[in-house]
Amino acid sequence: MLVTGSDILVPARAGKYGVASFNTNNMEITQAIIHTAERLRSPVMVQMSEGAIKYGGQDLANIVKDLASRASVPVALHLDHGSSYASALNAIKMGFTSVMIDASHHQFDENMAETKKVVEAAHAMGITVEAELGRLGGIEEHIVVDEKDAFLTDPEEAVRFVEGTGVDYLAIAIGTSHGAYKGKGRPFIDQERIQKIGGLLGIPLVAHGSSGVPAEIVQRFRDAGGEIGEAAGIADEDLELACQHGIAKVNVDTDLRLASTVGIREALKANPKEFDPRKIFGAARDVMSQVIEHKLRVLGSVGKA
Ligand code: G3H
Ligand code: 13P
Ligand code: NA
Ligand code: ZN
Known about the structure:
globular, binds sodium ion
């Protein structure tokens, strides 16, 4: 069933497990996400960025809504990184059940004001809202607190922000970053900060940039002819621990981008004569399903729906 973000995330926060929010850009990605969640009895979120809306528009939103409505598990359709009030409102008009307003690059007061405006409009229509406080980016384990505080989310500010805006779930900066290059080896995640913010705030917390960039997938990407540098993602153990302390929504895009490309490259390499798109995109869907299953197991959402 198609539900709001809070319908999925509030129980996750209370139950100390994480719900993956995967980015989609086409039918095969959407099927892999929702069908795998159904198979594993897991709630899940499907998110479209503004770029995804530009690419797939209402056609793609309708595919997600249709699969979600017919699904035997709770699914939310979420706007990822909405850049303005107008963008959030447009997504709600398109049938999204959850929206993010990302004004985190603005000053605190402006971020508050913009977020509050979206919260008021969205709540009037029964839609729940994510906002972000802090700057995403990799950090070193041993840098001084002052330097961390320059861009990681400040716990006291987070409390003021949530009280002032009424936002339903909050994305925090804790050392994760977007993309396939999150730092060397195992990127440092500020678990102490998560614990502190989770102790002060009862609402679900959100981790962006949470792809694992699994070494096995990176190797298959290379073996099938792909070129990729020193890729690294967030360790499974770090996500597990983060979900114990308040992270309830875990954003993943890069892992499915890599998995789909691995599927396509391997299919074409194994059979250069192939030109049936179902064989090619179907292979992408299969590899994505495996990566999705792994993520749902790590986050502990399997069997929760
Ligand atoms: O955080 C950004 C997501 O990975 C979406 O990326 O804007 O290229 O669709 P995109
Ligand atoms: P990754 O690049 O780690 O997949 O993060 C995706 C994300 O945060 C989308 O909002
Ligand atoms: Na988001
Ligand atoms: Zn993000």
